[in-house]
Write a structure and sequence with these properties.
The chain is α/β, with parallel strands linked by helices. It contains ten helices and 14 strands.
Amino acid sequence: MQSFLKKLEAAIQWRLKEAYLPPHRHKHREWTHHDLQFFAKGADLLSTAFTEGRSILPKNYFNKKEFRSAYLLYFVLQNFVKVYKCLEQLVPGPQSLVHSPLKILDLGSGPGTAALACSVFFKDRPLEVFAFEQNEGSRKDALALWQKLAPSHHRLSFVRCPTPPKGTVDICIAANFLSEVPFNQQIDFCTSTLKHSNTFIIIEPALRITTRQLMKLRDILIEKKKGVVLAPCLHQKNCPMLAAGPRDWCHFYIHWKCPQIIRQVDQIVGNKHDYLKMAYMIFGATRSQEYTPGSLWRTVSSPLISKGKRELILCGDCGFLKKIDRLNKDKSPHNFVFDQIRRGDIVEWPDKSRVEKEDKIKIIRKF
């Protein structure tokens, strides 16, 4: 993935210069610091709007070139990694025939971020992506990047409605899309989508209100038996974090090697992207038996370090939360793995709350 990120970064710079710079700025073919500053103004405003409230943006803001170009500059690389991380959670993955095209629906595709992530992830499979995007400028950006980066055996086409053109798709992806649908309409929307998709990936910003709505939506869909949750949850019971109180929300961190162009914009706008935050939910028709239930837990907190101990909060396949700790005096070669556990990791651990000197804890899968 890292090598493709460099190609995508170069392609974004090319597209920005080709489609968004004024004619008098075209004399410099290489990407310059002046180009970066030209587009960073819109990136700063978008970043603020996406974290503090979109009401500061005009309606249909992607109709304005300064916002489309800023999104290309600052958010495509970030969202590419988030989609790719969610695709990694699909184990064992879509079960369609290897030689038949894998069909994917990208809702609110923007400049084709999720489509490109699928193209890289499924690089050895025939692939057909149906993209739903209402903004003509974003469709042109998506097509330009796709033609530059996607292999010839992968196809991209645009659809007019947020539904598959024919039959069922293997994967439907709604990245930063569902939160723009009123919550009272999300249940019907997701129910309809799950009827036509074997797997439904939802990605949202890791904001408390948005994420807790996604957690609530998860509980409703499971209660109504509209599908099952494949990830991040290891169970099909009500969300214990949602029931515990209004303070917490289930979100995750992706550690990555931040691209240079993101670092440069960060320096201008005052942000920092050593890691990416996201909330996500993956639904399917049935749940695979990848793990044997009984003692598996998803880590849903970062390490909580206080005087004399280290703690983690886990969400189990039993459907409840548990806080486990290890006292500093009990640290030993037997339990050193406890120091390596990060938010999102799946671990195997018996039903006890303290890690002792001789206890072994096992990481089943890194996030």
